[in-house]
Amino acid sequence: MPQNGIESVTVRVPMNIALVKYWGKRDEKLILPLNDSISLTVDKLTAETTVRMIPGVGKNTVEINGKQVELNSNKRYETVFEEALRLQRKRKDHSDSNGNQSVFYHFEVISKTNFPVAAGLASSAAGFAAIALGIQRLLNLDDVQANRLARIGSGSACRSMFGGLVHWKKGEKEDGSDCVAVKTDESNWTDLYCIILVFNDGRKKVGSSEGMKRTRETSTLLKYRIESIVPKRIEQIKEAYSNRNFETLAHVIMADSNQFHAVCLDSVPPIRYLNDASWQLIEIIEKFNENETRAAYTFDAGPNACVIVQKKDAKSLIYSLLQSIEIPSEDLKSAEEELKESFEFSTETPKSTVCSKLVISPMGGGPQD
Amino acid sequence: MPQNGIESVTVRVPMNIALVKYWGKRDEKLILPLNDSISLTVDKLTAETTVRMIPGVGKNTVEINGKQVELNSNKRYETVFEEALRLQRKRKDHSDSNGNQSVFYHFEVISKTNFPVAAGLASSAAGFAAIALGIQRLLNLDDVQANRLARIGSGSACRSMFGGLVHWKKGEKEDGSDCVAVKTDESNWTDLYCIILVFNDGRKKVGSSEGMKRTRETSTLLKYRIESIVPKRIEQIKEAYSNRNFETLAHVIMADSNQFHAVCLDSVPPIRYLNDASWQLIEIIEKFNENETRAAYTFDAGPNACVIVQKKDAKSLIYSLLQSIEIPSEDLKSAEEELKESFEFSTETPKSTVCSKLVISPMGGGPQD
């Protein structure tokens, strides 16, 4: 507990990309998933968050990228702060005998993402993970408590609490106490990179929460996927990661991304996240993998692609992309810096598909204080 | 058997649309499906076929829409003619004791479809059904024999051999003898119409045979669909059809079309048949059905839509389509004639989606001599 009544902590937390997808909740309030999922962080897309603890039960505040968040219209923050208060009360009950003062705290959160929220890259996972980590440090919470704090903010946020391959276990218990994310492998595969392509899309998107609910209620394939397919894939990913077997890793990643979109299509009414640009990317990767599987695409609840490669193949992948996709030249320059390679590209031939942003990043890094 | 050594028969056979989709073969050679399917014919899209029987085992010929078919490069015809010869031989064995002469016949087929083959509307089902029906008449085959003849030409052709709701049973036997299509309901639902919209598409399509094979070999959802979903849906369609329950019929039709495309997406590499125009049509129908389910979309292995409605709702459906889809005015005129209704439409506002052909047709009519 702080001595001076005020303490603050700053953490930087990366977003994460699921290799086996989370889709469907078994408990809407506690955000308990219907199935396990497994993910890697994207080191360069982070939320940097300062959490300040202020004595007294007061009004919590959240500022994201310079804008105050209206907490009344965004209940997820309230849920997190209520849980933080509950944890303080619980500790007070236990520590009364030590003669501690019964002081409670509220929080001030100031968060900055290093990528535009409007780009369509899920930033809430990194943001809530950062808040949870901050509160964990300030209140000395254990990992299970911090995990829960992140999860009730934004389900997949609990997968951003560690580096390396992270396995979010659905758990069995009603109270969610066995629903936690864990780091699966002590040694990180530092050679994995991802290339994220943002494809803008005029269509109104079905939000993840709404989409998950619709699929759970109407898809006749989801239950089978959850019970019979996902558990095997989680094991395959863990084994492939630990053996540094890129080919198997890639096959499972692509198959699971496609199956996630298949159960979306099997919902009533059907949900569509992939657009023409996404499908063009799929075709480019199929061609790129013709002789040897060197890249894996994966798509979340939107058209943007995340392509996973080993560092050695990143440059030739970018060349393949450049054949038919227009990429902002400043992003190519950043890619050159990141890979310490130089690309020769002509911007003369106009391309049918335009990517509004490309980010290249190593994967698997953890949060930083 | 013909007395004069030459005999010919002319039949007109409609194409059919599956309400529960056939996707995947349990036997590639005999074209035995992995699952039951159920369909309705489209009365106005037909193949008119003359089959002439010529004495002697000779060179069979097939002409479609004025063009001679190169039989060497299209083995499916050969398979059908070989089966026809086998049936003649078999009968000869049995009839020798009657003192019949052992004369065999070969065939000349002249077929005309009343819609452009290039329009992307599956014409082969109607064509092979017509050939099978012609040969059935000429050789006095029973329904099971004729069914097999159609099926080994083009699987779903066996569903065009009858009017009304037709159930193609997958059967269990290895020789396919219990794999037959049957008419399920004595009384036809004459009020059902379909509106077919052809959306041209520059993409190279994965053919049905190749697609089915890929899905069977790689989709981890297909088996579950086949075993646990399809049988229920077949029963639901039969019951809804017999009770004239349009709402249930429509829900099952749409869910099954979407699930068929979902297992395509679940294949490796993923198969995509729906394009932006198809998805726009889906959204139009969702909106059209907002208060009451009055229309059902279904898509085969391509972007073209088939929308099923009761006759009373056909006009207002066409109005809904006209809001955002450009439809050739000559097709609207034919629709006016067919429905004995007149449409008011302006062709002034250009539409984002263009349909190159619209056909409106009653459903459920059978083949005609």
UniProtKB/TrEMBL annotation, chains A, B:
One of its GO terms (cellular component) is cytosol. It is an enzyme of class 4 (lyase). Residues 14-181 form the Diphosphomevalonate decarboxylase-like N-terminal domain. Pathway: Steroid biosynthesis; cholesterol biosynthesis. The keyword Phosphoprotein does not apply. It catalyses: (R)-5-diphosphomevalonate + ATP = isopentenyl diphosphate + ADP + phosphate + CO2. Its EC number is 4.1.1.33. Transmembrane segments: none annotated. One of its GO terms (molecular function) is ATP binding. Residues 194-368 form the Mvd1 C-terminal domain. Gene3D superfamilies: 3.30.230.10, GHMP kinase, C-terminal domain. Keywords: ATP-binding, Cholesterol biosynthesis, Cholesterol metabolism, Lipid biosynthesis, Lipid metabolism, Lyase, Nucleotide-binding, Steroid biosynthesis, Steroid metabolism, Sterol biosynthesis, Sterol metabolism. GO terms for biological process: cholesterol biosynthetic process; isopentenyl diphosphate biosynthetic process, mevalonate pathway. Signal peptide: none annotated. It comes from the Eukaryota. Catalyzes the ATP dependent decarboxylation of (R)-5-diphosphomevalonate to form isopentenyl diphosphate (IPP). Functions in the mevalonate (MVA) pathway leading to isopentenyl diphosphate (IPP), a key precursor for the biosynthesis of isoprenoids and sterol synthesis. Belongs to the diphosphomevalonate decarboxylase family. This is Diphosphomevalonate decarboxylase. It comes from Caenorhabditis tropicalis. The lineage of its organism: Eukaryota, Metazoa, Ecdysozoa, Nematoda, Chromadorea.
